[in-house]
Structure formats: C-alpha cells, structure tokens
Design goal:
Rossmann fold; about 40% helix; binds pyridoxal-5'-phosphate; about 375 residues; six-stranded mixed sheet; alpha/beta
Length: about 375
C-alpha cells in the first residue's frame, strides 16, 4: 500500500484518508521492529579468577547504528498515535546527532520531511547520515540554542517538534515490550550471575537510564543503576544537589551525552548512583575497548565502560563476585576525526595516555590507580 499524501495544512482527525495514512504509517514503523533482530550482549575480557563478568550490550548494530534507533521508533509511534505527526508536515528534532540519524530513517519510512537542529560541532559523519536518510540539518552555534530553534521551526512550518529531551522517558515502554532492560535480563539468563550487580548507562535525554531503572524496580531486581556523566554536563551536579535548575554554560565534548540543563526526560530519582568521568578517561576507555574487542565505538561508550571498570574495581576490593552490564552506544567510525584523531585530541588538550596506562595496569594487576 502506498502512503496517501494530504496537502491540507491541518487534518480532520476523523477524515478516512487521514486514518488510512495513520494506519499505514504505524504499520511501517511496527514492521521495521518486526524485521529487526536483538542486539548482542558481548563479554569484555576480565581475569577469570576475579569472578566478575562484564558485558556490553552492543546497540551499534541497530539499522541506524545507535541506541537511539529504539528511542526514535518509540517517539514516532508516540507522535503518530497522539495525532502529532501529520502527513506532509515536517518532523523537527533537537539532537546531538544520533537521535536525528534514527529519526531521519523513520521519517523517510513513513514519508514525512525531517529537519535536525544540532550544534555546529556535530560530527560530519552524522550530518552525512542524516542527509543520506533524506533529512536536512539546521546547525546552530551552541548546543543551548537547539530547543528554541526547534520550537521556532515547528511554528514556522506547521511541523511537529518531537522534543526527545522531554518525551524520551514517557514514549518508551519501561515495563517490558522487549525494551533494552528486558532484553539485557533475557540475555543474561544462562550466565553465571544472571542478575547484574550494576547496570551502567550514560545520559543524553536520560531516557535509557530511566527505562532501565524503572524496569529494574518494577521487576523487583536488586540491580543498582549507575549513570556516568562526562565533563561539561549538569546532570552530575543536579543529581548530587537534587537541583532541577542546575545548568552548565558549555557544550559536552562527548557526543550524545552530557547536557547544559537538567532535561525533563532525565529521571534522577530512579538512579542509584552517578559518576563523573573525565573526557580523557572516556576516550582512553574506548581505545581500550578497541584493543580488547576489536571494535571502535563512540566516546559515550567509553564514559560508561570507564565507570563500569571502576565498579569492577570496587567489587573486587570488597571481595564481591557478580556481573556488570554497560552499553556500546554507537560506532566509532562516526568519530574518526575526533576521538580517534591525534590532531583533534591535541587541539582539545586531551591526553588519554595516563588513563589508558592506568586501565591497562588495573586489568593486569587488579589495582585501581
Ligand atoms: C551516542 C550516544 N550515547 C548515549 C546516549 C544517551 O542516551 P539517552 O538519550 O537515552 O540518555 C545518546 C543519546 O543521544 C547518544 O547519542
């Protein structure tokens, strides 16, 4: 069936032509999920005698290459079922890139235009991916400007501002429906420690950490949730001080995570612990991941992995065994000219060397420096 195009600027919700469009759009999004396989839970090698297993849920294997594929699917279904996404009208999104790549894919799937509003510092590879999926990019000078620019563009075009930073936590089915948490627990079922001591996430919208934390509490698991936060993000201070007004004036260098304001979608009360991770340590950890698994990932993966390794060290020091899960959020080939470029690291005055040496010493001798 082809998607009918309606030229009207607004839509009569009971119009049979609109209802046919809506049904077909929802079918297309659901069919995409039905065709998709689950993402792998990989093991990170740790000395066997430690009795601690570390796993990485590889979200880079989604069709659009990041954990945001899940969120984009949920946001499109939420927007369609709420009657917010309309035929012929653009979907607009404020993003640090990964969500926009996935949303451009779903917009193309249902035949609506897509505009990504992003900071000018967003990696070139992500901009090209958005354009590859038929989207257009509206670049602003500072990450703080994306919200207002998106609201304005939606008003000017009669489009829908998706607003992941508000709706991520509520668009996702946190009780189950094969969400990321349910999938992790199902994949751990035959492991030595099927109930992880910790799950470590990072936060952009905060939607992933909210989904995992809510699911853990709902299923009455003992698992603790840690959110790892990079430099230039207000989430850590806002969580420690219980301050919903916390802000920072600068943009995060770890693409996808770290925000200038406490986003409405970030649910601090559901989280057990936060850790602040230096950017150099995030990048050292992601380089370590490549050496260990032969996989390049984005730097937000390193932020989570660094935190997870610190928790491994704490468990060891306390004489505990068990398992820890963290995420591979997106692939490293999107950032070859950043986190994998000596020139970029030098220009940003980031030296991952000492952190890399400390991590390698920890894996070799068990001592966390
Ligand atoms: C690469 C990357 N990692 C991690 C995250 C964090 O996910 P969430 O938005 O669910 O907090 C994002 C979000 O944009 C991301 O793009």
């Amino acid at each position: 069936m082809t998607v009918p195009t309606l030229s009207t600027s607004d839509v009569d919700r009971s119009d049979p032509e609109y209802r046919a469009w809506l049904k077909e759009a929802v079918r297309r999004v659901q069919a995409d999920a039905n065709r998709s396989a689950d993402t792998h839970l990989l093991r990170f090698p740790l000395p066997a005698e430690w009795g601690i297993d570390l796993y990485l849920k590889d979200e880079s294997t989604h069709p659009t290459g990041s954990l945001k594929h899940r969120l984009a699917r949920s946001l499109f279904l939420y927007g369609l079922c709420n009657g917010w996404i309309r035929p012929g009208k653009p979907v607009i999104e404020a993003s640090s890139g990964s969500t926009a790549v996935s949303e451009a894919y779903f917009a193309q799937l249902i035949g609506v235009p897509f505009v990504a509003v992003m900071a000018r510092s967003t990696s070139r590879a992500k901009i090209e991916l958005i354009e590859f999926h038929g989207g257009t990019c509206h670049l602003v000078d500072n990450a703080c400007e994306v919200y207002e620019a998106s609201t304005r563009l939606a008003a000017e075009t009669g489009g829908h501002y998706m607003d992941q930073f508000t709706y991520a936590e509520r668009a996702t089915d946190w009780r189950g429906n094969n969400n990321i948490a349910e999938s992790i627990f199902a994949q751990l079922r035959m492991e030595p420690h099927p109930e992880p001591a910790w799950i470590v996430a990072t936060a952009g919208t905060g939607g992933t950490s909210a989904t995992i934390a809510r699911y853990v509490h709902y299923m009455q698991h003992d698992t603790m949730i840690c959110v790892a936060d990079p430099e230039n993000s207000c989430f850590f201070d806002g969580w420690v001080r219980r301050d919903p007004e916390a802000t920072v004036p600068t943009s995060s260098r770890i693409e996808g995570i770290g925000r200038p304001r406490m986003e409405p979608s970030f649910v601090p009360g559901a989280i057990d612990r936060m850790m602040r991770v230096p950017d150099a340590a995030s990048i050292a950890a992601v380089h370590l991941l490549e050496a260990a698994l032969g996989k390049k990932a984005g730097a937000s993966t390193g932020t989570g992995l660094y935190s997870a390794l610190k928790l491994v060290a704490e468990m060891r020091a306390a004489g505990r065994t068990g398992s820890i899960v963290t995420l591979i959020c997106d692939p490293g080939d999107r950032y070859l000219d950043k986190y994998y470029s000596d020139e970029w690291l030098a220009a940003e005055h980031i030296d991952p060397g000492p952190h890399r040496a400390a991590l390698e010493a920890f894996l070799a001798g068990g001592e966390w420096a």
